[in-house]
Amino acid sequence: MRVLTAQPDVRNRLLATLSQSDFALLQPDLERRSLEQGEVIERPGISIDQVFFPEPGMVSVVAHTLTGMTLEAGVIGPEGVTGLPLLHGVDQSPNEVRVQIPCRALCLPAEALVRALRSSRPLHDHLLRFAHAFQVQLAQTVVCNGRLTINERLARWLLMCHDRADREDLPLTHEFLSLMLGVRRPGITTALQVLEGAGALKMRRGVIAIRDRTVLTEAAGDGYGTAEAEYERLFGRS
Predict the structure, then answer these.
(1) Confidence band (pLDDT; 50, 70, 90) for 1?
(2) How far apart are CA 116 and CA 103, in angstroms?
(3) Domains and CATH numbers, the chain
(4) Cα–Cα distances in Å, from 223 out to 134, 143, 148, 149, 160?
(5) 0.85 cut: is pTM over it?
(6) Distance between CA atoms of 202 and 154, rounded to whole angstroms?
(7) Separation of alpha carbons 80 and 14, rounded Å
(8) Among positive and negative, which fits the CA dihedral 116, 121, 126, 127?
(9) How far is CA 31 from CA 28, 137, 160, 194, in A?
(10) How many angstroms separate the Cα of 207 from the Cα of each of 92, 101, 152, 161, 174?
């Protein structure tokens, strides 16, 4: 017999801040799943059949060009939900959603979400507020990619990972960071060495350990804080 997930046991902030009545609309169809690093949960041009409310961990929204180039556009963790096109009446996207930091997540069939959205305007509004916060994050990424140095961009991205992972040791490789930030691997290696020398982090094979968030925040400069402040304005402090 399937056991329903109780709202107080949920570690996804978007679900935790729902009204009891709106959570009850989703509760019968929520199912916990483990998401493994590298797992693709949304594919370009294919209908979204389920959405995920991540608990501590992180997934990336990866944009693709027509010729196959890729770049990470944004990240989603326990503050949000995947499947954002569904909130706008769209069932697919040209983007890919890929697991970057393994996590547990509450999974919901897309049809169950759409049904619940139709029956509750407050639920729809709640999730749209997150969609807005995510758009702010995307806009900040555009600014950072165009105006900031590699060191600043990397520091911002590591802070965003740390915010969502609920752990100090992040399972990230230089090759992966190069792909996500659209920077050649030697540039990533140099930037990591600078941050390690400043005491912000410690590197081990396949792992980056955050040691001093204050130093990392200073290194990120203006790149970090705007999107986070907007989320807090909408949902309050965690």
Answers:
(1) very low
(2) 25
(3) 7-143 (2.60.120.10), 148-235 (1.10.10.10)
(4) 15, 8, 7, 10, 11
(5) yes
(6) 14
(7) 6
(8) positive
(9) 8, 28, 26, 42
(10) 33, 11, 20, 13, 9
